[in-house]
Amino acid sequence: MFTDNQIFAAPLAGITDKPFRKILRKFSPDISMVTEMISCHSLTGQHKNCLRNFDDYSDEGEIGAQIFGAKPELMAQAAKILESQGAKWIDINMGCPVPKVATKAGAGAWLMRDHALAGRIISTVVAAVKIPVSIKTRLGWDDSHKDWEKLIHIAGDAGAKFAVLHGRTRAQGYSGQSALEQKPSGLIPVIGNGDIKSVEDVSKIESLGYDGVMIGRALLGKPWLLRQLTGKNTESIDIKSLVLEHLDLVLDYYGISAGVPLFRKHAAWYSAGIKNSSEFRIKVNQITEITELKTVISEFFNCFGDI
Ligand SMILES: Cc1cc2nc3c(=O)[nH]c(=O)nc-3n(C[C@H](O)[C@H](O)[C@H](O)COP(=O)(O)O)c2cc1C
Hints:
Layout: E1 7-9, H1 18-27, E2 32-34, E3 38-39, H2 40-44, E4 63-68, H3 72-84, E5 89-94, H4 99-104, H5 115-128, E6 133-140, H6 148-158, E7 162-169, E8 190-193, H7 199-207, E9 212-215, H8 225-229, H9 239-254, H10 256-271, H11 277-286, H12 290-300
Parallel strand pairs: 1-2, 1-9, 2-4, 3-4, 4-5, 5-6, 6-7, 7-8, 8-9
Helix pairs in contact: 1-9, 3-5, 5-6, 9-10, 9-12, 10-11, 10-12, 11-12
């Protein structure tokens, strides 16, 4: 069974922000996490409207800061900033399929097509920081180009300490099933990712020879899941207090006017599978006032969780 330091919470843009990471750590203080992806342009330009550019990671335990971009020097500068903010390692995004990142900016998944540039980015970032560097990638650009093994070899040669592999191609986006094959020998450590939801899924990745697992969407509305996946018991959890605590963290971080609409998706995920959740979601989506939101949440979650 994997230990805590082999279990990772995945980067999820717009979701795994500082408030959500704090909630995840309540249940799993020692697991590793990766921030949402951060643009090297936005970070080095110190864009004021992007709060995560200014996060302090020194109070966060094991945390990798993920950057994306196509210019080695800017990526290195961004990595240095994040190192000085307390990131424990730098993760380079080489899998994001969104056209704005991959085809327009030549970053993210595009680097699976341009291995020479990928290698230059990795070695420039490695030379710029003292902390470890990793990459996060996919099986390949499309079904005809599943050359992840080659990219991970290049990453290792350029100084990356490990890689995360999502078992889909760029062309698949998030459709179909994630399908990881047996990890070949001779590679740097590889963390398996994609559709992992249960202890059985974790064991399957372990039996394929991977060095750890990374979990993303299964954590939505279930921040205690990582703890269960490491084989630890979770005592009964007061979901109402948990949701209200998460809301307060979001309001502290973003302020009320941005925080209330931003929390709606979390409220919906927490309510999934509970009786009358669709009525709850409709109500929450209309509320803009904080006292009313807290009242509706308290009334709906006025029960103890069954986890
Ligand atoms: C809403 C959303 C946002 C994501 N944001 C990022 C990101 O910022 N960086 C990244 O490397 N991957 C990102 N991913 C991909 C996930 O980290 C992960 O690789 C993918 O969801 C598969 O894992 P899962 O099935 O456990 O969710 C995102 C995925 C989703 C659904």
